[in-house]
């Protein structure tokens, strides 16, 4: 209260209500609470278990009407001062402050009572001299005892009790502290575990990672229009590395390729050959030797549900290992690169739920024996507005049986061959309809004509044009295959090979 040190003004009449200090705006005073309307409960009362006005706690019982309250914060204990100038006073903080008469509704400032944030003023009875009411539970002071022997005895007893209390308290505290500290358990006090020796289980993800990581590289490409990165794996100790065509195609006609090995060494590289239709490329790292190479496996042995591991450099995080299963086989998927979404680049892919992200392209998909069974090439991801696509558990890899032939042709001749049937097709209900036949091609030689609808390619059901293209790509030039048409006719065709690039 800002004016508690000023003398209180005497009311002109016994039941007048002078203004109460508390409003600080422009030095004006805040008016006291208005009296309730007749028949309405007094908002200053706290009875019936409900909170009284101005923060009086609920359940403290009804307060006599002759007591008025203030919402100013105050100490928790009541203070009782001697009456000033013959007036009875309770809790006043300034000289000459007087108590209002009972029922006046007057509230002198800053009278602590100990009811939380609420204070109370108890007024003297009209006409009384030196008498005042105390709050419930307050003990009146006991008249002092006569000086003498009793005082000395009481003092000695108090001293004995004090010393005993201090000794007992100190002993209890020390005993509690000792017991608490002696019973506490801490991980820091436990001995260090023994160093783990090499106990990698054969066929585990850890075992596969240990075998393959030294043979997987990060590929960084810089061109005049930008930069990119991907992954690859080493197939020869002198630095031949397999990757996706779409990883290095920007540098095929000018640009720089740098290979980052697992141990941190780097080397420049050049393109040996590439096949955009199958999204496969081989590059040669310069000035390297005695490199660890991968073991190539058979993708034809894969089963749905079989465990696999993907290794690469997603989002430039080289040497990242993820694991999953073979989710499906023979998925027709368009390869990445400049000709993406073109029927000429449809792959007969392995589907996996092992996490594959941008930067994994060109890295190996490995079975649990540590053999490369595919080349990670594409992912499915919902449309990303203004952001880069990421893994949703649907990734695709080029089967190694298909890729191996193309890689071998690139290494030996630099010019791979693409397997073709010699037709253009479009999707129709129930199959792939031939819209054009290449003169002298495998289809014409087998007796196929425009308008024929292919429903089976060997044992594989054909439900759309991309499925037929993927099925043809899974074969090698010179392979013979039986083709079933919608009218139940069957023909046998010998597939051709067309040189790429």
Structure description:
Helices cover 15% and strands 27% of the residues. It has 501 residues and is of the alpha+beta class. A six-stranded antiparallel beta barrel has the order 3-4-5-8-7-6. Strands 10-11-12-15-14-13 form a six-stranded antiparallel β-barrel. The longest helix has 35 residues, at 149-183. The radius of gyration is 47 Å and the shape is elongated. 37% of the residues are buried. The model is unreliable at 1-140 (pLDDT under 50).
Key features of this structure:
six-stranded antiparallel beta barrel; alpha+beta; disordered N terminus; six-stranded antiparallel barrel; 501 residues
Show the helix and strand layout.
Blueprint: E1 68-70, E2 119-121, H1 149-183, H2 205-212, E3 216-222, E4 227-234, E5 240-243, H3 245-248, E6 256-260, E7 266-275, E8 280-285, E9 295-296, E10 307-312, E11 320-334, E12 346-352, E13 364-367, E14 371-379, E15 395-399, H4 400-413, E16 417-420, E17 423-428, E18 431-437, H5 442-446, E19 453-457, E20 460-461, H6 465-473, E21 480-485, E22 490-494, E23 496-499
Parallel strand pairs: 9-14
Antiparallel strand pairs: 1-2, 3-4, 3-6, 4-5, 5-8, 6-7, 7-8, 10-11, 10-13, 11-12, 12-15, 13-14, 14-15, 16-23, 17-18, 18-19, 19-20, 19-21, 21-22
